[in-house]
């Protein structure tokens, strides 16, 4: 017998709840989005719609753009802007909050999962800090493609349902079009959601929010005597694993402020992010990060610093010793998982020699300015036969000897483990992506969209959902970035 699928929902039956709205008023400000005029759909993501049990045919209705531009409210919506604070570039800002986004509510799907519907670009809120509360087409496309690219790579992340644009003029460095992005996540609670009350000296709201988060997202901890230290420990563990995934795939977030860190260990808030082209451990993707605080090689340390900030914010709920013990798992969890991921990329089983093999390789990639993604994709076809030249890999290195010496050690390790070339190649094809979202690809999609052509956004969305597949019709995106890509700059306004 076939599986019974639940009936798909329409916009009118996509009934929302909002558990966050039932928290006391000091946690949020209730308000409706400021509608965009003359909205039109730019792109729709059926994969994200499936998370909501939403019929993808609904995207073809004229009302669709109205619902996700603020003109109409979904049934049961209780829109609000969330309050939080945060450390921005190491400096504490006592009040931030949703300055250009509104939480519409939550959908509970047929599997019992809760998904926040978070409308970015929804207009001014009490937390806008003199901003206009709007997003633009450029930034919305970058986040839309960024989070779906990360999902395709298997990295925990927010998701995105759609982009809706308009003819509303928004002023940035130039006049741009006001746009909304409908973002999905199990929760939008951040480290900064706790920090705001710690620095106000308000212990009871910290307990209230912790109880809410635990009940919603860590239900196995409810009622335990040590539920708060266990909660902190799990957030620390998830954050460490997320950092390992970022480092292994070559992703730089760009703005690792504590208000951009999720209590679920998912990638949150895509601004001036970037994937590595040639390997550069000190890569700074954010043009606004003049000190390099959030450089690629600093991300694991910043992750540790951020969870320490969270521990401090939660300190009224637990003894110092319990918080210290929870924090202590970070380094070991990061190192263990990072080595596991890198060994998988190399096609080897974790072993005593792995750390040296990884470090030596990265050093050689850096000195030779080797493209990170292309190297690992070509590594899938490495031949262990001593007579094999592995020219496709060797030719990536201006200093051929640098590759030769490492390849000798790598071959020896593969042979010790009894690795078979064909089996290993098939396995590595599922681990080393052929495609990543390089900045120039996003820029092409943005340029076309700003000219009224949204086809490239949809093409890239399709490609990035399955980045390990061949996609022969998109083969050009698996090659080296064009020279002009080096001139692209992204910043906190991106």
Q: How would you describe this protein?
A:
- This protein has helices at 46-51, 62-67, 137-152, 191-198, 203-217, 227-249, 299-313, 320-327, 329-346, 354-367, 372-379, 391-394, 400-416, 421-429, 439-450, 455-465; strands spanning 28-30, 40-44, 80-82, 86-88, 91-93, 101-108, 114-120, 135-136, 159-171, 175-185, 251-252, 274-275.
- It is of the alpha+beta class and 494 residues long.
- It has three domains: 11-190, no CATH class; 192-340, no CATH class; 348-429, no CATH class.
- The longest helix is centred in the middle third of the chain and has 23 residues, at 227-249.
- The mean pLDDT is 96.
* Classification by helices and strands: alpha+beta
Runs in which pLDDT lies below 50 for 5 or more consecutive residues are none
What is the rounded Rg?
23 Å
Distance linking N and C termini: 50 Å
Mean pLDDT: 96
């Amino acid at each position: 017998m076939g599986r019974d699928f639940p009936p798909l929902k329409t916009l009118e039956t996509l009934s929302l709840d909002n558990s966050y709205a039932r928290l006391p008023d000091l946690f949020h400000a209730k308000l409706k989005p400021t509608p965009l005029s003359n909205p039109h759909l730019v792109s729709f993501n059926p994969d994200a719609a499936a998370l909501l049990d939403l019929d993808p045919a609904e995207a073809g209705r004229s009302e669709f753009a109205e619902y996700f531009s603020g003109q109409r409210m979904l049934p049961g919506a209780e829109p609000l802007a969330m309050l939080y604070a945060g450390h921005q570039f190491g400096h504490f800002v006592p009040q931030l909050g949703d300055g250009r986004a509104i939480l519409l509510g939550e959908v509970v799907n047929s599997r019992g999962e809760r998904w926040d519907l978070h409308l970015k670009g929804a207009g001014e809120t009490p937390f806008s800090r003199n901003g206009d509360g709007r997003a633009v087409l450029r930034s919305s496309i970058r986040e839309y493609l960024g989070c779906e690219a990360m999902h395709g790579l298997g990295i925990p992340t927010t998701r995105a349902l759609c982009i809706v644009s308009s003819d509303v003029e928004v002023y940035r460095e130039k006049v741009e079009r006001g746009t909304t992005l409908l973002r999905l996540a199990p929760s939008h609670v951040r480290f900064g959601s706790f920090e705001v009350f710690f620095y106000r000296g308000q212990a009871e709201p910290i307990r209230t929010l912790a109880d809410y988060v635990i009940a919603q997202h860590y239900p196995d901890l409810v009622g335990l005597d040590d539920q708060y230290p266990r909660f902190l420990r799990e957030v620390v563990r998830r954050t460490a694993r997320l950092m390992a995934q970022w480092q292994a795939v070559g992703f730089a977030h760009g703005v690792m402020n504590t208000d951009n860190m999720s209590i679920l260990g998912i990638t949150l808030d895509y601004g001036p992010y970037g994937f590595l082209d040639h390997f550069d451990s000190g890569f700074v993707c954010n043009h606004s990060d003049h000190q390099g605080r959030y450089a690629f090689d600093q991300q694991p340390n910043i992750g540790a610093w951020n969870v320490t900030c969270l521990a401090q914010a939660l300190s009224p709920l637990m003894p110092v010793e319990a918080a210290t013990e929870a924090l202590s798992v970070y380094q070991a969890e990061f190192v263990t998982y990072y080595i596991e991921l890198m060994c998988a990329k190399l096609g080897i089983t974790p072993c005593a020699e792995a750390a040296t093999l990884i470090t030596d390789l990265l050093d050689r990639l850096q000195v030779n300015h080797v493209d990170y993604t292309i190297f690992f994709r070509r590594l899938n076809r490495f031949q262990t036969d001593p007579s094999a030249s592995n020219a496709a890999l060797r030719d990536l290195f201006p200093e051929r000897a640098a590759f030769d010496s490492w390849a000798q050690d790598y071959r020896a390790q593969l042979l010790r483990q009894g690795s078979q070339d064909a089996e290993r190649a098939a396995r590595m094809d599922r681990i080393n992506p052929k495609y990543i979202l390089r900045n120039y690809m996003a820029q092409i999609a943005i340029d076309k969209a700003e000219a009224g052509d949204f086809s490239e956004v949809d093409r890239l969305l399709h490609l990035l959902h399955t980045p390990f597949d061949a996609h022969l019709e998109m083969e050009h995106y698996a090659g080296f970035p064009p020279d002009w890509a080096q001139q692209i700059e992204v910043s906190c306004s991106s």
